[in-house]
């Protein structure tokens, strides 16, 4: 897989990089993160200056502008080739604690897109909430943490960034203080998160003890000759896997996900299940390829991590899909489906063989899947947010006949469901296709087969939603559908359009992702 | 000068436009859109003549009009990686000639329909003329196709149109059933054709008919070891090409009603008679033979396929002719004669007689269209009575119909000097001289020769029963008169049935040594215009046959062959004369004894196919059981297993956060233990 740079953007490419006539200073590579941080601080300031404003439109606009700026910057850098081999390689800042490369920018773009959708949709979701100010600042600051997590290249920054994502998330899940489910979910999330963080940081300390460094590159070098400490390092790596599993809602640290996604406000569920999960995968991809020799020869630790991830991927996707099939509530079904998709994305770490020719393709396909997932899953949760706002029930039966009262949004939801199931011609089909094809080319046909079987099963429960919306007769509950929340509608439609537009636009997405992933293996 | 080839797409488009016009505005047009159809086919006919003249002046033309799929390599695929799917036109002597035949017949059928449909007050005329227009357009598209895939698509359109037109009187019970039968039986052959098309693409990466990169040329190179064609399972190139050729042949056998897929054609008589004329003479049935002729360069490379084509053709020629012996209905006799005559064409193609096959395709188009239109005229006159035993004595009342029908019958029976004599004689001659060294081919020739007296017998049985003797019913005594729109087409075709044979008087040339009167040979050999790889002498060079002669040379062989077949034809005619050219003819079928029943029932072909269909129904129901029981069982099993296990998962998900913390810790610990043991960390 060669890295192709469009020649027309060469002048831009030179700007933030070291080459060319007038390059931007290196710190500007952190622009997307800085834009999010700035927006978060501005939101806090606005809330302090106008504490009694009852409308949250301004807050929503500020947050959206900040996340759009982050999206635009990361998109620009991606198009210009910043931090890519063609323009001088990855940009490292703060003594290599932060690395800006294709992977970081790609995931920053995913996080920024999801954040934009979520903050726009939240204007209508939180329209009569008393204190919306904190909500927006927490979302945007958590997004900043996610973007930082995708760029972190030292175990210390990784841990800090991870907590920067986790702490606002706990508060966000419990944000509906009057709602018992929300508060309970927040507490559970916090407790499980605390345990996971403890395990994770313990794992970091063990790795540090074995290698003597926190920088990923130094850790990689030390892994070549661990001596007696191979066991210590191995235990540390496994504990770190647990930390990543918590962020990505994968087995064995997936228990929190259904309860939290169900109890949290729906926009927060969308945010956590799409952006937070993607950020977790970003850091896992980076740590395992750069520090723990995934895709290289098996180190002194004596374990092929790809095989571990293969087992986890199979268990995760199977468990997620099987559990989703028996749910009665749509939101909880989506929560389990989110676990299932974490299993698919894990293929990007699992179908990696030592020196395999398609390693970059598989991991890139996994990244592209997370990109598409960012839109279709966020859109699905935002549709649920809309239904929650209307006060229609939560079960499949309650959704009966929604297509008659909200046709546009229902079409969008149909697109999300079929795309999540992986039906052509929607985005989810292409990303899954490339993912499974990459796995097959790398010799992991059985993994692709399990993934395909799971996709078939998933069609069952996704189509239940579509059936309820379009085919079943409307119930009295639909009388509650009385309003047209503009911003929420807009966000759902935009997500649906993005899911469909991926059809012609998938080439650039998969190429960028594969180039970014290939650079990691280089 | 404006290039005629630029108008080739218009030849196809004009009837298509008439289809659209008749469909959309037929209700508001005079005569239900008939004039639009006549104008369109007349326009196509004139353009075709122009194209023919341009080819005669040394032109040829191949052009890709539209590329609808282009790929620069399919990852992980088999065979050649670069495939383009295109629409294009190929004009060479063969297709130019066929264009003229098809447009001429189509135009005459349109005119005749004025008399048969409009004057008889048939309903739904716009639908009828729309069908005719689309039928003609599809066939013309098939004729000019420059690649196999495009040919296949128009081939299917032709099949669809035949379905629509055979079932035109869909409110009666017979026609819809016949239409379905025609559609399904030909579709059965087309499945093989489709697989063949895919096989051609997989093997050669192209399906074009003409050019140095066409698949017949590539196949030639592959057999010479100069081109590396993809073959499955490591088969020899020759073996695989035979298989591909037979697959494509499946489509031709279905459409051209060759044994064993001929059963749809007699039933197709349920369609309006002008449609039968179009189907039998110029479109649907001709498509199969034309397809084989179009890719003849591929077939001549594989002797096995050639032998099979010849044998199937010879067998069909005899087999169908015997079934025509005892039929009572005018159109039924003609239907079996069509099957039989296309059998001759297949025999010619299989015997290496490319020119002979095209020659017979042409003469047959004229005289069979004539006979069907003549039958249509009789049916008009007889108030839609088709049973020949209800007719008799029509000679006096319908002179134009009688004389033209007689010309057509003489041509069909192969009586000198009518058109059919020349073409049939050339087929038998080719089969004989090539068959002297090939026992299988000689067998095919023998069957073809045996069919000659049978053909003459049933043809004149039909003529005598219909036109001679005393009228046997009141209607026959006072038939309905027919108008110019019936007589006109009959006259044109009647003249052609008499003189068309003169374009290719090979026997005369060989015996008397007059050069240059074998026009069709020169035409198809590229003496005027055409592609060098699509000429008859190129095919002859590639072909597997050598010529042998009897009685010491070419001239005696020609004379003996022609003499024997003419004698046999006259013998059949004479027998029919003796038995049926009397005032009160009797059936005389009792003399056949048990054979009669067999013939009446068409050798129980339909029953056999129904029984075979019954077997397939058994297979289908077994497959259904398998699907319901095993596949669905597995799917249901998976989902119920998943529902049950999903339920387990739900039970683990207790909602108590301490359980989660415990499970989480246990899970991570378990992971550490397993991996630690595997990785040897605790040693």
TrEMBL record, chain A:
TM ranges: 27-46, 58-78, 98-121, 133-152, 158-177, 189-209, 229-246, 266-285, 305-326, 333-355, 367-387, 399-423, 443-462, 487-506
GO biological process, one term: ATP synthesis coupled electron transport
Location within or outside the cell: Membrane
Domain NADH:quinone oxidoreductase/Mrp antiporter transmembrane: 152-458
Signal peptide range in chain numbering: none
Gene Ontology terms, MF aspect: NADH dehydrogenase (ubiquinone) activity
Keyword terms of this UniProt record: Membrane, Transmembrane, Transmembrane helix
GO cellular component: membrane
Pfam families: Proton_antipo_M
Membrane topology: Multi-pass membrane protein
PANTHER family: NADH DEHYDROGENASE
Protein name: NADH dehydrogenase subunit N
Taxonomic lineage of the native organism: Archaea, Methanobacteriati, Methanobacteriota, Stenosarchaea group, Halobacteria
From TrEMBL, chain B:
Domain NADH-Ubiquinone oxidoreductase (complex I) chain 5 N-terminal: 81-129
Subcellular location per the Swiss-Prot or TrEMBL entry: Membrane
Record-level GO BP terms: ATP synthesis coupled electron transport; electron transport coupled proton transport
Coiled coil, from the record: none
Alphabetized UniProt keyword annotations: Membrane, Transmembrane, Transmembrane helix
Membrane topology label: Multi-pass membrane protein
UniProt cross-references to Pfam families, sorted A to Z: Proton_antipo_M, Proton_antipo_N
Gene Ontology molecular-function annotations: NADH dehydrogenase (ubiquinone) activity; NADH dehydrogenase activity
GO CC annotations on file: membrane
Transmembrane segments: 6-25, 37-58, 94-116, 128-145, 151-170, 191-210, 230-254, 275-293, 305-326, 333-359, 365-382, 402-422, 442-467, 488-506, 555-577, 660-682
Name of protein: NADH dehydrogenase subunit L
Organism: Halopenitus persicus
Source lineage: Archaea, Methanobacteriati, Methanobacteriota, Stenosarchaea group, Halobacteria
């Amino acid at each position: 897989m060669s890295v192709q740079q469009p020649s027309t953007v060469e002048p831009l490419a030179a700007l933030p990089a070291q080459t060319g006539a007038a390059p931007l200073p290196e710190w500007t590579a952190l622009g997307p993160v800085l834009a999010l941080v700035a927006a978060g601080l501005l939101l806090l300031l606005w809330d302090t200056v106008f504490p009694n404003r009852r409308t949250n439109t301004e807050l929503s606009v500020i947050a959206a502008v900040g996340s759009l700026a982050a999206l635009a910057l990361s998109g620009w850098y991606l198009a210009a080739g910043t931090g890519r081999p063609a323009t001088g390689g990855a940009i490292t800042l703060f003594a290599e604690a932060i690395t800006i490369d294709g992977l970081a920018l790609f995931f920053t773009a995913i996080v920024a897109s999801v954040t934009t959708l979520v903050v726009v949709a939240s204007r209508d979701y939180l329209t009569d909430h008393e204190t919306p100010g904190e909500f927006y600042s927490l979302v945007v600051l958590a997004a900043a943490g996610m973007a930082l997590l995708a760029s972190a290249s030292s175990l210390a920054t990784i841990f800090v960034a991870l907590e920067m994502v986790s702490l606002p998330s706990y508060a966000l899940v419990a944000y509906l203080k009057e709602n018992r489910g929300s508060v309970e979910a927040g507490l559970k999330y916090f407790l499980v998160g605390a345990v996971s963080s403890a395990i994770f940081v313990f794992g970091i300390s063990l790795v540090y003890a074995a290698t003597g460094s926190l920088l990923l590159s130094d850790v990689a070098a030390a892994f070549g000759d661990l001596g007696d400490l191979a066991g210590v390092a191995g235990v540390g790596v496994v504990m770190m896997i647990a930390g990543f599993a918590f962020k990505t809602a994968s087995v064995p640290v997936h228990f929190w996900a259904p309860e939290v996604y169900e109890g949290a406000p729906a926009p927060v569920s969308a945010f956590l299940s799409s952006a937070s999960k993607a950020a977790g995968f970003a850091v896992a991809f980076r740590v395992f390829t750069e520090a723990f020799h995934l895709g290289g020869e098996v180190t002194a630790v004596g374990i092929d991590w790809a095989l571990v991830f293969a087992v986890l991927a199979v268990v995760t996707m199977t468990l997620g899909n099987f559990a989703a099939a028996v749910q009665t509530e749509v939101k909880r079904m989506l929560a389990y489906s989110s676990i299932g998709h974490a299993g698919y994305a894990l293929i990007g770490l699992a179908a990696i063989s030592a020196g395999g020719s398609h390693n970059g393709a598989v991991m890139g396909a996994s990244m592209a899947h997370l990109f598409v997932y960012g839109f279709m899953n966020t859109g699905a949760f935002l549709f649920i947010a809309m239904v929650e706002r209307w006060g229609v029930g939560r079960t499949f039966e309650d959704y009966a006949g929604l297509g008659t009262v909200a046709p546009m949004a229902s079409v969008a939801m149909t697109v999300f469901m079929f795309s999540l199931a992986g039906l052509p011609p929607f985005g989810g089909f292409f990303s899954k296709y490339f993912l499974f094809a990459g796995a097959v080319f790398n010799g992991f046909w059985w993994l692709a087969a399990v993934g395909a079987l799971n996709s078939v099963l998933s069609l069952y429960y996704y189509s239940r939603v579509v059936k309820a919306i379009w085919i079943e007769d409307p119930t009295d509950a639909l009388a509650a559908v009385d309003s047209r929340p503009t911003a929420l509608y807009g966000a759902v439609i935009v997500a649906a359009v993005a899911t469909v537009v991926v059809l012609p636009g998938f080439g650039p997405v998969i190429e960028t992702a594969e180039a970014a992933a290939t650079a990691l293996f280089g | 000068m404006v290039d005629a080839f630029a108008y080739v797409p218009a030849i196809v488009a004009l009837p298509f436009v008439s289809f659209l016009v008749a469909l959309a505005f037929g209700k508001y047009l005079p005569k239900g859109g008939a004039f639009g159809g006549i104008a369109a086919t007349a326009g196509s006919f004139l353009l075709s003549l122009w194209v023919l003249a341009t080819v005669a002046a040394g032109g040829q033309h191949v052009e890709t009009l539209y590329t609808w799929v282009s790929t620069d390599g399919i990852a992980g695929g088999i065979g050649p990686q670069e495939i383009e799917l295109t629409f294009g036109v190929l004009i060479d002597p063969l297709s130019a000639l066929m264009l003229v035949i098809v447009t001429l017949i189509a135009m005459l059928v349109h005119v005749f329909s004025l008399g048969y449909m409009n004057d008889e007050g048939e309903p739904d005329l716009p639908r009828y003329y729309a069908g005719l227009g689309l039928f003609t357009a599809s066939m013309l598209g098939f004729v000019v196709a420059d690649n196999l895939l495009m040919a296949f698509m128009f081939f299917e359109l032709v099949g669809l149109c035949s379905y629509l037109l055979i079932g035109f009187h869909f409110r009666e019970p017979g026609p819809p059933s016949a239409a379905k039968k025609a559609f399904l039986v030909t579709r059965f052959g087309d499945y093989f054709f489709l697989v063949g098309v895919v096989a051609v693409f997989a093997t050669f990466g192209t399906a074009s008919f003409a050019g140095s990169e066409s698949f017949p040329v590539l196949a030639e190179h592959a057999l010479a070891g100069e081109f590396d064609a993809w073959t499955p399972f490591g088969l020899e190139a020759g073996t695989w090409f035979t298989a591909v050729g037979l697959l494509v042949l499946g489509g031709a056998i279905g459409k051209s009603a060759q044994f064993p897929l001929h059963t749809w054609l007699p039933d197709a008589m349920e369609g309006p008679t002008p449609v039968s004329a179009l189907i039998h003479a110029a479109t649907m049935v001709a498509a199969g033979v034309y397809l084989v002729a179009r890719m003849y360069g591929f077939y001549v490379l594989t002797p096995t396929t050639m032998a099979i084509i010849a044998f199937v053709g010879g067998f069909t020629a005899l087999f169908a002719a015997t079934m025509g012996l005892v039929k009572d209905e005018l159109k039924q006799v003609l239907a079996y004669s069509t099957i039989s005559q296309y059998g001759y064409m297949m025999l010619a193609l299989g015997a290496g007689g490319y020119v002979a096959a095209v020659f017979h395709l042409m003469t047959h188009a004229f005289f069979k269209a004539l006979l069907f239109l003549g039958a249509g005229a009789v049916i008009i006159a007889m108030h839609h009575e088709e049973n020949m035993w209800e007719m008799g004595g029509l000679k006096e009342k319908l002179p134009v119909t009688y004389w033209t029908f007689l010309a057509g019958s003489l041509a069909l029976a192969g009586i000198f000097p009518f058109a059919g004599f020349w073409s049939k004689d050339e087929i038998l001659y080719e089969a004989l001289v090539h068959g002297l060294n090939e026992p299988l081919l000689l067998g095919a020739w023998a069957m073809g020769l045996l069919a000659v007296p049978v053909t003459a017998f049933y043809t004149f049985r039909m003529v005598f029963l219909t036109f001679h003797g005393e009228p046997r019913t009141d209607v026959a005594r006072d038939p309905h008169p027919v108008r110019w729109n019936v007589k006109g087409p009959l006259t044109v075709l009647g003249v052609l049935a008499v003189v068309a044979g003169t374009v290719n008087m090979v026997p005369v040339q060989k015996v008397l040594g007059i050069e240059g009167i074998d026009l069709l040979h020169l035409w198809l050999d590229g003496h005027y215009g055409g592609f060098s790889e699509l000429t008859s002498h190129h095919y002859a060079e590639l072909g597997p046959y050598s010529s042998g002669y009897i009685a010491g040379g070419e001239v005696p062989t020609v004379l003996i062959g022609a003499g024997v077949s003419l004698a046999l034809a006259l013998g059949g005619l004479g027998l029919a004369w003796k038995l049926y050219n009397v005032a009160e003819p009797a059936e005389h079928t009792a003399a056949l004894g048990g054979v009669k029943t067999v013939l009446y029932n068409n050798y129980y072909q339909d029953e056999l196919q129904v029984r075979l269909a019954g077997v397939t129904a058994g297979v289908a129901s077994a497959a259904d059981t398998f699907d319901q029981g095993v596949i669905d069982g597995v799917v249901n099993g998976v989902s119920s297993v998943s529902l049950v296990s999903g339920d387990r998962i739900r039970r683990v998900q207790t909602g108590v956060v301490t359980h989660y913390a415990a499970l989480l810790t246990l899970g991570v610990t378990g992971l550490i233990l397993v991996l630690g043991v595997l990785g040897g960390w605790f040693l």
